[in-house]
Design brief:
The complex is a heterodimer of chains A (about 375) and B (about 170). Chain A is α/β, with parallel strands linked by helices and about 375 residues long. Chain A is built from 13 helices and 15 strands. In chain A, helix 1 (about 10-20) runs parallel beside helix 2 and helix 10 (about 285-290) packs across helix 13 (about 360-370). Chain A is globular. In chain B, helix 1 (about 15-25) runs parallel beside helix 4 and helix 4 crosses helix 6 (about 155-170). Chain B is an alpha/beta fold and about 170 residues long. Chain B has six helices and six strands; from the N terminus they run βαβββαββαααα. Chain B has one domain (about 1-170): Pyruvate-ferredoxin oxidoreductase, PFOR, domain III (Pyruvate-ferredoxin Oxidoreductase, domain 3), CATH 3.40.920.10. Classes of the chains: A alpha/beta (about 375), B alpha/beta (about 170).
Chain lengths: ~375, ~170
């Protein structure tokens, strides 16, 4: 392990390199640009390729192409660029292309406040694309976790042949902290399953097992299309059966693997707690200080934001009478909480966004006093 | 645990003051968290940069009250006055900050920096002032090493030493 002093953005770049990422395309945007700066420096040293694209639309399509050429690929952006990437991300879902897209959130909508932290892109990471589409969303709480979790993001994207969205905010992206970088031997890496003969490349009997993925130039005749296709990749833009089967399988590929991809942290005893906090990202740092010394409060930190294990969340919250949901937005995660608890239980949002002002521990403590 | 903040105006090098402080404490073996709040402009607007350092990993970097806060411009104060008032040791630049805060120390940092010809390194004077209060063994050597890696070493070095001395003098 190597002790370093890194911003979350720098930690993401080191983690991506250590995860085996060898292609990056992006367009600079605050507060994500340092990821791009670092990848421009680190990728050539690692034998990879870095491209500054003309815009985010080009960037997302470049990483899709690079992934089909066999490289683990990544792009990083912030809200406005993430909005532009949606069409390409949907295409990546439909074509089952492993990718990692980092969104370092700033206050929005539109140009908003470029240098100020926010958490308002949560719903967009899940539902930003048209059609029936599912992918995985992960959210770290610190630069150290950004480093560790981006490696996991690549592993999930490879093992499920899916895009993974990595959701950070400006506080994590620009905040600098001590990060321990692992040695190559300390990291478990997952590689996508390569093609064997006669195995369909866009279908499988068990939807939880993604089909293998050939590399362009390996000799397989393969049509990669965003149109509805059968298990061999042939377009079928007419029949109910082909489309329904495809989108059902793509959904089940993500939700059927929830046990593998759903990560969370719990502080406190769900059996004894009367109150709870549900949070994600940097906001949980304040929440952790707020619950210090309070043994009747349960803290649930969601690391995986999608797919969300609603059953588990319901079970964890089954005994509480108050849930506090701090968010650097007007409230999005709060809908998940409201969905799993009985109507008599009070759910209180602590919502603050803009100006780069964090939610302080005292504000969460105050909400718990209700 | 140390909680140190620098507050001022865009262009004064507030973020760099926090960076230098954070890197020095990191080199001394501390767990460190450094955060900043700034606008999109290169000059003007309020800038806050702060550092939390501890022997344990930092649980929460979102600090509501600082041990030491150095305010180098009125513009920063306008926005973060409440945060400043909550801090334990408040150092206001005598010339650049007009507002009075009860219990604050008014230090002539910018006046001395101007007289000594290092006005552009007022941020480093502030770092010197902070470390004159914190008094961490061997910190000057670490700062020197960090400054050597950057441009304008001579000016910055002088500014740091002025900060250390001037504040000690003022304290007595």
């Amino acid at each position: 392990m190597k002790r370093m002093f890194l911003s979350g953005n720098e930690a993401v770049a080191y983690g991506a390199i250590d995860a085996g990422c060898r292609f990056y395309a992006g367009y600079p945007i605050t507060p994500s640009s340092e990821i791009m700066h670092m990848m421009a420096k680190l990728l050539p040293e690692a034998g990879g390729v870095f491209i500054q694209a003309e815009d985010e639309l080009a960037a997302i399509n470049m990483i899709i192409g690079a992934s089909w050429a066999g490289l683990k690929s990544m792009a990083a952006t912030s809200g406005p660029g993430f909005s532009l990437m949606q069409e390409g991300i949907g295409y990546a879902v439909m074509t089952e292309t492993p990718l990692v897209i980092v969104d370092v959130m700033r206050a929005g909508p539109a140009t908003g406040q470029a240098t100020k932290a926010a958490q308002g892109d949560l719903m967009q990471t899940r539902w930003g694309r048209h059609g029936d589409q599912y992918l995985v969303v992960l959210a770290p709480e610190s630069p150290q976790e950004a480093y560790d979790l981006i490696i996991e993001a690549f592993n999930i994207s490879e093992s499920l042949r899916t895009p993974v969205v990595f959701l950070m905010d400006e506080f994590i992206g620009h905040g600098r902290e001590v990060v321990f970088r692992k040695e190559p031997g300390e990291i478990k890496l997952v590689e996508r399953r390569r093609s064997s003969d006669h195995e369909p490349l866009f279908g499988s009997d068990d939807p939880r097992i993604p089909p293998p993925m050939p590399r362009l130039g390996e000799g397989y005749y393969v049509l990669v299309t965003g149109s509805t296709h059968n298990e061999y990749g042939y377009r079928d833009v007419h029949s109910f059966e082909t489309h329904y089967k495809l989108v059902r399988r793509l959904k089940e590929k993500i939700w059927g693997n929830i046990d593998k991809v759903f990560k969370y942290e719990v502080i406190g005893d769900p059996g004894r707690a009367e109150k709870a906090i549900v949070c994600f990202g940097s906001t949980c740092r304040s929440a952790k200080e707020a619950v210090m010394g309070l043994d009747n409060v349960l803290l649930i930190r969601l690391i995986t934001l999608w797919p969300l294990n609603y059953d588990l969340l319901r079970e964890l919250l089954s005994n509480v009478r108050l849930v506090v949901v701090p968010e650097l937005s007007l409230g999005q995660l709060i809908y998940d909480v409201q969905q799993v608890i009985d109507s008599g239980i009070k759910v209180v949002g602590v919502n603050k966004v803009g100006g780069g002002v964090p939610i302080y521990p005292s504000e969460i403590k105050k909400a718990l006093e209700v | 645990m140390f909680k140190i903040a620098y507050l001022g105006r865009g262009g004064q090098g507030i973020v760099f003051a926090a960076t230098l402080t954070a890197e020095a404490l990191y080199e001394k073996g501390y767990y460190v968290a450094q955060l900043q709040n700034y606008g999109a402009s290169v000059r003007g607007g309020s800038v806050l940069g702060y550092v939390v350092a501890d022997h344990e990993p930092i649980k929460n970097p979102f600090i509501e009250e600082f041990d030491i806060i150095v305010v180098l411009h009125e513009e920063g104060l306008k926005r973060w006055k409440r945060l400043v008032e909550k801090s334990k040791k408040i150092i206001l630049d005598k010339k650049l900050v007009k507002t009075n805060i009860p219990g604050a120390i008014k230090a002539p940092l910018s006046t001395i920096a101007e007289k000594e010809g290092v006005y552009q390194a007022l941020n480093i004077v502030a770092v010197g002032a902070v470390f004159s209060i914190l008094d961490i063994e061997g910190i000057d050597k670490v700062i020197d090493k960090l400054l050597q890696k950057r441009k304008n070493y001579e000016v910055n070095k002088k500014a740091y030493m002025i900060g250390k001395r001037s504040f000690q003098h003022h304290n007595h």
